[in-house]
UniProtKB/TrEMBL annotation:
It comes from Undibacterium flavidum. Residues 170-285 form the RapZ C-terminal domain. Residues 1-161 form the RapZ-like N-terminal domain. Transmembrane segments: none annotated. The keyword Lipid biosynthesis does not apply. Pfam families: PapZ_C, RapZ-like_N. ATP binds at G8, I9, S10, G11, S12, G13, K14, S15. Keywords: ATP-binding, GTP-binding, Nucleotide-binding. NCBIfam families: PRK05416.1. GTP binds at D57, S58, R59, S60. Coiled coil: none annotated. This is RNase adapter RapZ.
Length: 287
């Protein structure tokens, strides 16, 4: 059976992700206590279910330490298990809770330690939840949903569930430094030293996927040298990450606005590594 476990911080988009996989034909269960996971999988398997997704969150905090062992048992039974961990900056989460006017799930479960009758504030709930779900963060692939629209996240989740099983997924992600470095990247490369197409009025409205911008950067010797250095770094260390049994390796490429140089470099690197690796491409600024 193909099993997708979705976890993360409240407000980071778990419900959006679960809806996407349900629309893709997965049997979905929300807020599943981890202790029931193996029995549920056995039941679904007996009913002929091939794809299932379960959301596990901080409301089962006392059981989260056991998830790693449970996942390993499922894999030993022959199931393909993928884990997605969604997160976002505290500022983004506070804004989302303010927009929806919903209370944090832990606000009814936790109380201030020195004031037993006083619930935690929203910021305190977010901080507490980060600690509670931390055992899951390093089991799978982290997706930072800060500054992502719901539609953008839906597309990313669709890409995730369409990727066939591989020992390691190589992710290339462009971003804008003016927005901030994503939380989900393993390595960050800064391409702001390259000539900026933004200052050419004809190129300004285009992106790094447009041929005119590609031609502009291909003509820059510095751009080719930087591309080769990044490529050589990944070529050298990728085998070590595979030996470490990593499921994902995310390479972040950043420029000022996340529109021209970083997009160009991500696309160029992805084309090279697609010849031998399972590759996903993400552009955070939604080009």
């Amino acid at each position: 059976m193909r099993i997708l476990l979705i976890s993360g911080i409240s407000g980071s988009g778990k419900s959006v992700a679960l809806n996407v996989v349900e629309d893709a034909g997965y049997y979905c269960v929300d807020n599943l206590p981890p202790s029931l996971l193996i029995d549920l999988v056995k039941t679904l398997e007996s009913e002929g279910i091939k794809n299932a997704a379960m959301a596990i969150d901080s409301r089962s905090a006392h059981q989260l330490q056991s998830v790693a062992d449970t996942v390993e048992k499922l894999r030993q039974l022959g199931h393909e298990v993928k884990i997605l961990f969604l997160t976002a900056s505290s500022e983004t989460l506070i804004a989302r809770f303010s927009e929806t006017r919903r209370s944090h799930p832990l606000s009814h479960l936790l109380q201030a330690p020195n004031l037993p009758c006083t619930p935690l504030s929203l910021t305190e709930c977010i901080d507490a939840e980060r600690q509670l779900v931390s055992p899951l963060q390093f089991l799978g692939h982290v997706i930072d949903t800060s500054n992502l629209s719901a539609n953008h996240l839906r597309n990313w989740i669709k890409d995730e569930i369409c990727v066939e099983h591989a020992s390691l997924i190589l992710m290339f992600e462009s971003f804008a430094f003016k927005v901030g470095v994503p939380l989900d990247v393993d390595f960050v490369f800064d391409v702001r030293i390259l000539p900026n197409p933004h200052y050419d009025h004809a190129l300004r409205p285009l992106t790094g996927r447009d041929q005119a911008v590609v031609d502009f950067l291909e003509a820059q010797a510095m751009a080719q040298d930087l591309y080769q250095d990044i490529r050589n770094f990944i070529d050298k260390w990728l085998p070590s990450f595979k030996q470490d049994n990593r499921s994902y390796l995310t390479i972040g490429i950043g420029c000022t606005g996340g529109q021209h140089r970083s997009v160009y470099m991500v696309e160029k690197l992805a084309r090279h590594f697609q010849q031998s690796e399972r590759v996903l491409i993400r552009h955070r600024q939604n080009h």
